[in-house]
Design brief:
The complex is a heterotrimer of chains A (547), B (113) and C (247).
Chain A lengths: L20 H5 L4 H29 L10 H37 L7 H23 L13 H5 L4 H28 L12 H33 L12 H35 L6 H14 L15 H29 L8 H24 L1 H7 L3 H31 L5 H28 L13 H31 L39 H5 L11
Chain B lengths: L9 H21 L7 H21 L9 H24 L12 H9 L1
Helix pairs in contact in B: 1-2
Chain C lengths: L20 H4 L12 H36 L1 H9 L3 H26 L3 H31 L14 E2 L2 E5 L2 H37 L9 H25 L6
Antiparallel strand pairs in C: 1-2
Classes of the chains: A mainly alpha (547), B mainly alpha (113), C mainly alpha (247).
Chain lengths: 547, 113, 247
């Protein structure tokens, strides 16, 4: 069991080492950069959430009466763009990954700290451009930018939004690059690949996707901008181009992008379940390999977004088959997490509640993905609320729950304070209830035929829509609560011990909050990951001292 | 353990350089000969050999002391290949419309037989 | 496990912890978060290779678009391709190949502590790069004059399809060729310009004596970038210039 000493109030740590705006804006400390990201992505989450609120308000009534049709187009477009590119994709890697990857492997920092800071600045520049685009006219093409509407017909800020996402994409690429080099080169002595926390494996796999996929959407956006600015015909059928070429190039990234969003969350869930079931993750090797498999297979399935777009039926067959196969590694993880729980010593702290939520909701989301992978079914539910429910179950019920669970789990380490557990459990419950109330009706709506991206609908769909909006309100409360009590805890929370959860992992061997260079002495790892049996048996797992 | 790639000796550099120049000339001249559909194949093959020479000898991939770099190169090329080939799986098998579909006549013949 | 007192203690666990007295002295180039120069150099190298992987995928999207339209509009593309100057393109290919040679020679010179040669090779590399851009400029100018730049001034009427006398290329399809031509070679040229910037900086560092046989990592990774730009052109040349050059 790690010694848990309550820190005196002013131990030097990465937060109080230096004060002043300059020390934050010019920092190269991965932990400070993680916090810079935390503030930024939370800001964008509010913006994306604001658009969601307006969408749900509009959909309270069958008629299009809150906003005009063009405005509604901008609402769902910007909700998607902000949430995907400026919240979900950075969220766990840029906040929790940046903070924890060096610490989990026993390093002082990432391989390229200055590039890490550059990543954040690129994100901010892209974000600022996006906000400017939204404020000076908005974008109404859907987050998917389909041509030729986006290139030849839309009268909105397509170029600006495209450039904003292009810039933010490089932020993502550089983060991935940094993680891969760090994980390969900066592991502490004894930290072999098979001793790495599954969080690291997950981020490694995510980084592979970021490296290989993001450049393709970057070039695609360049082509869209060029086409729009110069009236080219690369994607315009009237000029000899093929709109489906855009879709192929777009989805080649955007499908693996969803795995960028979910894999880190899966890594978080592995850490939480191991800690709160006091057990090594069952099938560690399978879970690690499944992360890599998801990264690889994720690149093979993109045209399942195009089944009704006009691709050949033979290509559709191939992509349908491949899409079924990509579910396998995800299922492997769910089985292994479940097996970990079996005969575990389960504690229902807030992080674990989020992990449970993840297990159920991600499974539902994943299974409904199989429905969509089936060509016959997809013919009917493509572009309906069924798809919307499917991806929100994964991205919100999965990725976001994982993010919240991780924020709670590592909050004591990040801030040096304990959050109020009672409120946290309540918030988790509210999020779970609100989420299901929001999105389960949407499965039914989609099945019944309600199309997505429409601001009006037949009267018989109103009850389900009202339920969904009610759920969104509850969900909103559930999200506000952690923001409030996390902020509250920074000022009034109890000081956190170095390892409040008695968790395994090198990050817990540092003080809470950590010092700038993480470890007093270089760790030398001689134990396996998730050695909870040893920890709970009281073996001292202090880091053996070298030097 | 130093993983620094030792430089190839000068002879290798100059040999590769000359080969690359010859390859360029070859590509240019062969393009003038009518080989039908094989023109592209020849040109691309020579290009691949040239790229390989640059990567192996000028970029020191040949003497990289760990497999990781080679894995990265091969993986990247693999995913590029996926992008090109699976897109072509769509384009090659579309029917209708005015565009030449390379494989569709063969596929439909196969299915009918 | 060796027990060593070190000021920058962290190291890559795949390597046995080997430090020498020599490395206990802080070298100015050794960044603080690295354990030893090898780790720093290997990280820089790996980082550049991964960046090049992203560049392959970046250009790859363009190659994908080009592939599809070349198959769809082969005849029109052949006609358009014939109108760009293959001799200049081929010369540029040779220029870049020479520049790649000078890059590796510069690195070799650094390893041999031959400062004058290293500087000369770096300067020559940049000279070749400028030649490339100059020739590119001539080509672009020719296209501008012939109204082959996509956009409102584009015109490609009555251009014969090679090998099919009496048949003329579809201007719309040819415009797609030129759009891809300008975007692909333009993006490549942009990378060349960045490369020139990098090598200017490397030249200055070399001039100041920063490179030694033990430390010339920036040269190595700058070189990797330059070679990559060369490789992209090795593919662009036959694909764009040599579709159908039968007389």
């Amino acid at each position: 069991m790690a010694t848990t000493t309550i820190a005196p109030a002013e131990r030097e740590n990465y937060l109080n080492k230096e004060y002043g705006l300059g020390s934050w804006l010019l920092t190269t400390d991965h932990k400070r950069i993680a916090l810079l990201y935390l503030i930024s992505i939370t800001f964008f989450f509010f913006i994306g959430g604001f658009f969601a609120l307006l969408i749900r308000l509009e959909l309270l009534t069958p008629a299009g009466d809150l906003v005009q049709a063009d405005t509604y187009n901008k609402l769902f477009t910007q909700h998607g763009q902000v949430m995907v590119f400026f919240f979900l994709i950075p969220s766990i890697p840029a906040v929790l990954g940046n903070f924890l990857v060096p610490m989990m492997i026993g390093a002082k920092d990432l391989a390229f700290p200055r590039i890490n800071l550059l990543s954040w600045y690129l994100y901010i520049i892209g974000g600022a451009l996006m906000i400017h685009a939204m404020l000076t006219g908005g974008v109404d093409t859907g987050w998917t930018f389909y041509t030729p509407f986006s290139t030849a017909f839309s009268n909105t800020k397509v170029i600006e939004a495209g450039l904003a996402i292009f810039i933010a994409g490089f932020s993502s690429i550089l983060t991935g690059l940094n993680f891969i080099v760090t994980i390969h080169r900066m592991r502490a002595p004894g930290m072999t690949w098979s001793r790495l926390p599954l969080f690291i494996w997950a981020h490694y796999a995510t980084s592979i996707i970021q490296i290989l996929g993001t450049p393709v959407i970057a070039i695609t956006l360049v082509l869209v901008v060029a086409e729009r600015a110069l009236h080219l015909g690369i994607f315009d059928p009237k000029l000899g181009g093929d709109p489906l070429l855009f879709q192929h190039l777009f989805w080649f990234y955007s499908h693996p992008a969803v795995y960028i969003m979910i894999l880190p969350s899966m890594g978080v869930v592995s850490e939480i379940i191991a800690c709160f079931a006091r057990k090594r993750i069952f099938g560690y090797t399978f879970v690690a390999i499944s992360s890599l498999s998801i990264a690889v297979f994720g690149f093979l399935v993109w045209a399942h977004h195009m089944f009704v777009a006009g691709i050949s039926v033979y290509a559709a067959l191939v992509f349908s088959l491949l899409s079924y196969s990509v579910a396998v590694p995800s299922a492997v993880k769910v089985f292994n997490w479940t097996a970990t729980l079996y005969k575990g010593s389960i504690h229902y702290d807030a992080p674990m509640l989020y992990a449970f939520g993840f297990l159920g909701l991600f499974t539902i989301g994943g299974l409904t993905g199989l429905f969509l992978a089936c060509l016959g079914v997809d013919m009917h539910v493509h572009d309906t609320y069924f798809v919307i429910a499917h991806f929100h179950y994964i991205m919100v019920g999965g990725a976001l729950m994982g993010y919240l669970g991780g924020m709670h789990f590592w909050w004591p380490k990040i801030s040096g304070k304990l959050y109020p557990e009672g409120w946290a459990r309540l918030a988790a419950l509210i999020v779970f209830i609100g989420f299901n109330l929001t999105f389960f009706p949407q499965f039914i709506l989609g099945y019944l035929g309600m199309p997505r991206r429409y601001y009006q609908y037949p009267g018989e769909f109103q009850v389900l829509n009202v339920l969904s909006t009610a759920g969104a309100t509850v969900l909103g409360v559930g999200y506000l609560l952690p923001m409030i009590y996390f902020l509250w805890s920074m000022r009034y929370g109890k000081p956190a011990p170095d390892n409040p959860w008695n968790a395994a992992g090198l990050e817990w061997q540092t003080q809470s909050p950590p010092t700038t260079f993480n470890f007093e002495k270089e760790p030398v790892v001689t134990w396996e990951a998730y050695n909870y049996d040893e920890i709970d048996a009281g073996h001292k797992e202090e880091v053996p001292v070298v030097g | 353990m130093s993983v620094h790639a030792t430089s190839s000796p000068l002879k290798t550099y100059f040999a590769v350089w000359v080969t690359l120049l010859i390859g360029t000339l070859l590509t240019y001249e062969v393009a003038k000969i009518d080989l039908g559909v094989f023109n592209s194949a020849v040109a691309l093959t020579i290009a691949c050999i040239k790229a390989l020479l640059v990567a192996l000898f000028f970029m020191h991939l040949r003497h990289a002391s760990e497999k990781l770099l080679k894995v990265i190169v091969i993986s990247t090329l693999f995913f590029l290949f996926i992008l090109l080939s699976l897109s072509m799986a769509d384009y090659a098998t579309r029917g209708g419309g005015g565009h030449a579909s390379l494989l569709l006549p063969h596929i439909t013949a196969l299915i009918r037989s | 496990m060796r027990v060593t007192k070190r000021r920058c203690p962290l190291s890559d666990s795949t390597t046995a912890v080997q430090t020498s007295v020599h490395e206990d002295v802080h070298r100015p180039e050794l960044l603080h978060h690295f354990a030893n120069p090898e780790q720093q150099r290997d990280s820089a190298s790996l980082g550049m290779w991964i960046f090049l992987a992203t560049e392959v995928m970046f250009f790859g999207g363009l190659f994908c678009a080009y592939l599809i339209y070349r198959i769809w509009y082969y005849a029109d593309f052949a006609a358009a391709s014939k109108s760009i100057n293959a001799a200049l393109g081929g010369t540029n290919t040779a220029v870049l190949i020479c520049s790649s040679l000078t890059v590796v020679l510069a690195i070799w010179a650094a390893e041999q502590s031959r400062r004058a040669l290293m500087l000369a090779m770096l300067a020559l590399t940049m000279f070749f790069g400028l030649c490339f851009l100059g020739i590119k400029g001539v080509e672009y100018h020719d296209k501008f004059v012939e109204h082959h730049v996509p956009g409102p001034t584009f015109s490609f009427e009555h251009e014969q399809i090679p090998g099919h006398p009496g048949q003329y290329a579809n201007p719309q399809h040819a415009e797609i060729f030129f759009a891809l031509y300008f975007i692909m070679t333009g993006l490549h040229a942009l990378h060349m310009i960045v490369g020139l910037g990098i090598f200017t900086w490397l030249f200055v560092m070399a001039w100041k004596g920063r490179f030694t046989p033990e430390y010339h990592t920036p040269l190595e990774i700058g070189g990797l970038y330059w070679h990559f730009v060369d490789i992209i052109w090795i593919y662009l040349f036959p694909l764009l210039y040599l579709i159908d050059r039968h007389p």
